[in-house]
């Protein structure tokens, strides 16, 4: 229970259906240590924790706060920093779901003899033979299946997504009907939970103060390797970025490649971001246990990406993805998720992109 509308309605809905519900709120991050200027908000704030506890008590079920800041910092935040230093673009929500929230929540569920874990994600869990897999939620505008590709079979087998079969307006109306009008009208937060001011550059500088001096003054180059300017340091850029380059080039320019070894950031026109192939590693399979041969799938390369028809095949323990068209801004470090209709086949981390000859 984050204190937000989706997890709150999830808990109350299950409670009213007769389940014995135990509310768990995870304290993942201490805002005071982030150094950010923005007021503490979101799922880790004291107000949100108090909101979750108050609702649980008023509705008649138990509530516990679990402090996982050390686990979260050791894995999610350290990985976030390390990935940018490696010249990649991480997705901390995927890492948190995969390695922290589900695994930690399942351990607490076992300790309290709970049979299932339930969250407010807009997704569904289905089963095919002995495989459990995530499918898109009914409300495709709110669908969160993309960030759940890393959740293990053991966790999925005991996971429930009660709001996945509803559209967001229906959940808001449920909250109003439950007497939670203020919660129904509460604005949603889309920032990374440990970067409330949405300034990841500032976060990296505060986390690694020695980094700024070490990487400042690298070269911007074009596709021919010609120097066209100086930048603030390669970790402060991401593939596909247009704004915040620090200087004007006379035409819109985008980050097309990052080389951490040489501190060089390559810029190009928008069409130079187009790729029709990529390599993916760290694969976690959902609907099928493995991919035997080349198969067709719709592949998404970021959360807001509509996805594109592609073929996928295993080559030397990695997945080779060939798109049936061009995809713009494929960023190493981001997640690639493969779909069969609404069902998640599996996913992994993008290693690199290429253009087929």
Essential attributes:
16 strands; globular; 4-stranded mixed β-sheet; 6-stranded antiparallel β-barrel; SH3 type barrels; 9 helices; 357 residues; Elongation Factor Tu (Ef-tu), domain 3; Rossmann fold; alpha+beta
The strands making up the biggest β-sheet line up spatially as: 11-14-13-12-15-16
Whole-number tally of structural domains: 3
What overall form do the CA principal axes indicate?
globular
Give me the number of helical elements: 9
Structural class: alpha+beta
In brief:
With 357 residues, this protein is α+β, with helices and mostly antiparallel strands.
Explain what this protein looks like in three dimensions.
The protein has 357 residues and is α+β, with helices and mostly antiparallel strands. The protein folds into three domains: 5-120 and 161-184, Rossmann fold (3-Layer(aba) Sandwich); 215-268, Adenine nucleotide alpha hydrolases-like domains (SH3 type barrels); 273-354, Translation factors (Elongation Factor Tu (Ef-tu), domain 3), CATH 2.40.30.10. The chain is built from nine helices and 16 strands. A six-stranded antiparallel β-barrel has the order 11-14-13-12-15-16. Helix 1 runs parallel beside helix 2 (46-59). The protein is globular. It starts with a helix and ends with a strand. The relative contact order is 0.13. Residues 36-40 have low confidence and may be disordered.
């Amino acid at each position: 229970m984050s204190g937000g509308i989706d997890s709150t309605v999830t808990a109350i809905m299950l409670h009213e259906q007769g389940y014995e519900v135990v509310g768990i709120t995870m304290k993942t991050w201490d805002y005071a240590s982030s150094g950010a200027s923005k007021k503490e908000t979101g799922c880790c704030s004291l107000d949100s924790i108090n909101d979750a506890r108050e609702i649980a008590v008023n509705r008649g079920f138990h509530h516990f706060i679990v402090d996982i800041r050390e686990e979260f910092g050791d894995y999610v935040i350290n990985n976030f920093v390390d990935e940018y230093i490696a010249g990649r673009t991480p997705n901390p929500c995927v890492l948190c779901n995969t390695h922290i929230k589900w695994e930690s929540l399942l351990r607490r569920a076992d300790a309290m003899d709970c049979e299932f874990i339930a969250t407010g994600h807009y997704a569904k869990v289905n089963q095919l033979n002995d495989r459990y897999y995530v499918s898109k939620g009914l409300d495709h505008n709110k669908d969160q299946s993309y960030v759940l590709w890393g959740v293990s079979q053991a966790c999925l087998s005991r996971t429930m997504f009660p709001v996945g079969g509803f559209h967001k307006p229906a959940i808001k109306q449920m909250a109003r009907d439950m007497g939670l009008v203020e919660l129904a009208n509460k604005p949603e937060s889309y920032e990374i939970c440990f970067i409330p001011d949405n300034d990841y550059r500032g976060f990296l500088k505060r986390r690694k103060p020695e980094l700024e001096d070490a990487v400042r003054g690298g070269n911007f180059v074009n596709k021919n390797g010609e120097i066209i300017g100086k930048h603030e340091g390669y970790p402060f850029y991401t593939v596909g970025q247009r704004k915040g380059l620090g200087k004007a080039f006379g035409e819109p320019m985008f980050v097309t490649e990052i080389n951490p070894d040489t501190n060089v950031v390559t810029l190009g026109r928008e069409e130079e971001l187009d790729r029709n192939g990529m390599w993916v590693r760290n694969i976690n399979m959902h609907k099928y246990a493995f991919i035997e041969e080349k198969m067709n799938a719709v592949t998404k390369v970021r959360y807001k990406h509509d996805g594109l028809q592609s073929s996928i095949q295993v080559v030397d323990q990695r997945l080779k993805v060939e798109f049936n068209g061009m995809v713009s801004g494929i960023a190493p470090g981001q997640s690639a998720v493969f779909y069969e209709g609404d069902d998640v086949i599996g996913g992994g981390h993008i290693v690199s992109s290429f253009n087929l000859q």
